[in-house]
Amino acid sequence: MTTRSKMKNIKKFVIFGNPVEHSKSPQMHNAGFKYLNIDANYETKHLLNGNELKDTFLTNDFYGANITVPHKEEAYRQADEVVGIAKHIGAVNTYIKKNDKILAYNTDGLGFLKAVKSFGKLNKILIIGAGGTARAIAVALKQEKKEVFLLNRSQNKLEFFINLGINTYTWDNFKMNNFDLVINSTSAGLKDDLYPCDKKLLEKLFKKASFAFDCIYGKQTPFLRLALAMNLKAKDGEDMLLYQGVLAFELFTDTKATDKLIEAMRKGLTSSYTKRGKLK
Ligand SMILES: NC(=O)c1ccc[n+]([C@@H]2O[C@H](COP(=O)([O-])OP(=O)(O)OC[C@H]3O[C@@H](n4cnc5c(N)ncnc54)[C@H](OP(=O)(O)O)[C@@H]3O)[C@@H](O)[C@H]2O)c1
Q: Is residue 66 a contact partner of residue 93, using CB atoms and an 8 Å limit?
């Protein structure tokens, strides 16, 4: 087989975002393809204009895609068919081409549920933040019939959660409660050293809680450091990133992930990264 015809048989996958160069998805998915001996490649594509998402996906002959910030809502609007929990979230992070149609899914919320499974039984949960990630987590938790509360620094974006039947607060009107789990789904701590709310309030919350989860991964944020210092069981967002990827990979390959595949993908996620998205 010539190189050109071999190239033609490779299934192409991509992650769209702006920015996207930092994404660890290529190394995670390529590790999965390598483990299963699937002739496929997963790359990054920096997309400035979300309106061009569907066209770019189709004209480049991608078989599947992940979509990251800031294009998840636009990806939802452009899909031919939205499947499952994504219908309630209003944003998607996964595209698959089937019979020339784009099917769209959201694996962030279910990825989160898998990531906190190791915490055991959780009843009352407080989400801090009200962005796209909070939406996915809130819908997934509501589907699990959990009691969900939400705290955001501003009133912006709260309507979605009120419509879900969630008790929502801003910093000005927050009511303390016994939460089992406190989640940081804000970007506070990502590029700065900020807490997602007043530190004293966080200390009060952590005194009553058993678990803390930070959606941010790859660093110990002030939120995570405080939770660990106060002896909570706490984890960062790496497992959430892994499991949203595993769930997308299952959709891409129409397979059920085994523990060994998940381990291979985890290794890929944490391995060194090359610009073209191939494992070293
Ligand atoms: N682990 C994973 O797989 C995964 C997946 C997706 C995202 N994430 C992480 O999750 C975080 C949120 O992402 P997103 O897409 O939901 O972001 P987003 O839509 O931009 O929402 C950000 C939220 O954070 C709040 N916020 C921002 N800066 C804050 C500060 N200094 N103090 C308090 N609140 C602040 C905003 O409040 P206002 O409404 O008042 O502006 C908003 O509610 C990011 O750090 C991202 O890296 C992780």
A: yes
Structure tokens at 112: 């989160």
Asked if residue 226 and residue 140 are part of one domain, the reply reads yes
Instruction: Give the residue, out of 25, 72, 133, with the most ligand 1 atoms within 8 A of its beta carbon, to mutate for a pocket test.
Output: 133
pLDDT at position 137 over 60: yes
Report the domain count for the chain: 2
- Per-residue confidence (pLDDT) for residue 8, from 0 to 100: 62
Same domain, 27 and 72: yes
Domain that holds residue 145: 110-236
CATH of the domain at 178: 3.40.50.720
Q: Measured between alpha carbons, how far is 140 from 128 in angstroms, rounded to an integer? A: 15
Q: How would residue 276 be classed by pLDDT, with cut points 50, 70 and 90?
A: very low
Q: Which residue has the least CA distance to atom 6 on ligand 1?
A: 133
**Residue 277's pLDDT band (boundaries 50, 70, 90)?**
very low
User: 208 and 144: one domain?
Assistant: yes
Q: What is the CA(88)–ligand 1 centre distance, in A?
A: 19
pLDDT tens digits, residue range 83-125? 999 999 999 999 999 998 999 999 999 999 999 999 999 999 9
State whether 129 and 229 are in the same domain: yes
pTM of the predicted protein model: 0.93
Same domain? 124 vs 96: no
Residue 229 parent element (H or E) = helix 222-229
Quote helix, strand, coil % in the chain, to nearest 5.
40, 20, 40
